[in-house]
Amino acid sequence: MNRALPLAAAGLATLWIAAALSGSRGLLAGAALAGLVAPGFLALRRRRGPRRRRLAAGLLTLGALPGALLGLLLAGIVTGGAALGAMAAFLAVAGAAAPLLYAGTFPGREDP
Amino acid sequence: MTGALLGLAAAACLLLAAWGWRAARDDEGFFAASRSAGALLAGLGGTAAGLSAFVFVGGPGLMASLGIASLWIVLSAPLTGALQCWAVGEPMVRLARESRCVTVPGVVAVRFGEGAPRALSALAIAAGGIATLAVQVKGIAVLGNVLTGRPGWLAAGILILLTTAYTAAGGMRAGLPAEAAQGVLMALAALLTAGAALERVGGARAAVDTLAALRPEFLDPFNGVGMTGAVGWLLLFGLGTCAQPHYLQKFLLLRDRESLRWMPVVMTGALLAVLTVWLGVGLAGTALWLRGEFPAAAPDQVAPALLRTLPRGLAVLGAAAVGAAIMSTATSLMNLVAAALTRDLPRALGRTPHRGLLAPRLATLGAAGAALALGLGSDRPLALLGVLGWGTFTAALLPVVLVGLNWEGATRAGAVGALLVGPAVQLLLELAPPVGVPGAVEPGLTGAAAGVLVLVALSLGRPVRREAAP
Question: A25 contacts in B (CB within 8 Å)?
Answer without folding.
Answer: 227
